[in-house]
Design brief:
By secondary structure, the chain is an alpha+beta fold. The protein contains 16 helices and 14 strands. It is globular, with a radius of gyration of 22 Å.
Length: 380
């Protein structure tokens, strides 16, 4: 049930939401105020997908949000083709439901083509007949799933003077392709093989414009949010026009800087004073990547610690709903350990609560091993 809106939720004015009000709204929508009893598939759809750059973070992301998650739940969804790993919003890898993939992927095609043309592989193939290149790649992958490494030389048989790797990367980036399991499942580190989505899912992609539906889903999962936030999550162009079209279905707020924020009209906000237990968030967690303005979840001074120069988004801890440190898990032959690095000294209560979360995480993802918990000094 939606949380009832209160005066405290509105922040510093009747229509103004301060970072704490936005934080509580975000955590409520993300099942981080209170874990959900929903199924893993329902949560994947509720979130509009999970960041999937690496195999394990989506599992951790669901574990954090669900009361009864087992790693095999997500693996089974991928193996039975109910959830797929594919290039989606912003040209990044996501795990999305098959339903959402089929409904959304064609709408994202202009985004993915634009981003690919701006990339190294785009510059390497821009003077080619790209429709012919796409068709050739699609035909080869329809025969059997192939890795990019295997696809490139086959494309080069037709275009012997072109860069095989660049051609394969272009096809991988632009064509509607699925990462075939076991790529993307827990602890899988083998190179992905690709299959045409329509073949893998047994039905064609919808050609209907899904932009309105995507924006409404985003706001339900991450709102209230601005036009810039929506564009940052989706990569779509023309977001301002989409929002204008949807205005009769939206409620408007302002943030403390005066930026207009939008939310589905039927969704209320939780009490901004609501307590939030400490949480462990996955690497690349959605809440860190889904807004242009991110003060609702972390302070700008901590960004270099969370986002590394080589594109990694570290796993983080939430204290009082905001990022207050990082954590990592290492598993050996006999022992699994979680190391927590807070940005500042933790209270005894927060330290104990994080210890409980770490124990629960290790029980789920490292059964049968001896467990260890370490706290290290971090930024002050």
């Amino acid at each position: 049930m939606p949380a009832r809106k209160s005066a405290a939720a509105r922040g510093s004015g009747s229509d103004t939401l301060d970072p704490r009000a936005l934080n509580r709204a975000l955590l409520h929508r993300q099942a981080l105020l209170q874990p959900s009893s929903e199924s893993a598939l329902a949560m994947v759809e509720r979130l509009g997908g999970l960041q999937g750059q690496a195999p394990n973070p989506p599992y951790l992301g669901l574990w954090t949000r669900l009361t009864a998650f087992r790693p095999e739940d997500l693996t089974e969804l991928m193996q039975t083709r109910q959830v797929v790993r594919a290039t989606m919003m912003r040209g990044t890898l996501h795990l999305v439901s098959a339903r959402d993939y089929l409904a959304w992927r064609a709408t994202l095609q202009p985004v993915l083509r634009r981003l690919s043309l701006q990339s190294d592989q785009g510059r390497a193939v821009h003077d080619m007949d790209l429709d012919a290149l796409n068709a050739a790649g699609r035909a080869l992958l329809a025969r059997k799933p192939l890795s990019a490494t295997a696809l490139g030389p086959l494309l080069r048989e037709r275009w012997p003077d072109r860069d095989a790797a660049a051609m394969a990367r272009w096809v991988r980036s632009v064509e509607p392709l699925i990462h075939v399991p076991p790529a993307g499942v827990w602890d899988s580190h083998q190179a992905a093989t690709f299959a045409p989505a329509a073949d893998w899912l047994g039905q064609p992609l919808s050609t209907d414009d899904a932009a309105d539906a995507m924006v409404l889903r985003y706001l339900a999962a991450f709102g209230p949010a601005s036009v810039k936030d929506i564009a940052a999550w989706s990569g779509l162009q023309g977001v301002r026009a989409i929002v204008a079209r949807l205005r009769p279905r939206l409620r408007a707020y302002r943030d403390v800087h005066g930026n207009e924020l939008f939310d589905p009209i039927d969704l209320d906000l939780p009490d901004a004073g609501q307590a939030v237990p400490p949480r462990l968030l996955a690497d690349f967690d959605n809440v860190l990547l889904a807004h242009a303005e991110r003060s609702r979840i972390f302070e700008e001074r901590h960004k270099p610690t969370i986002f590394t120069r080589n594109g990694i988004v570290r796993a983080t801890i939430l204290i009082d709903g905001f990022v207050r440190g990082t954590w990592s898990m290492e598993r050996g032959k006999d022992t699994a350990a979680i190391t927590i690095v807070p940005f500042a000294r933790l209270s005894k209560a927060d330290r104990a609560a994080l210890g409980d979360e770490a124990a629960r995480c290790l029980t789920t993802f490292a059964p049968g091993l001896a467990h260890d918990l370490r706290f290290e000094a971090g930024d002050r």
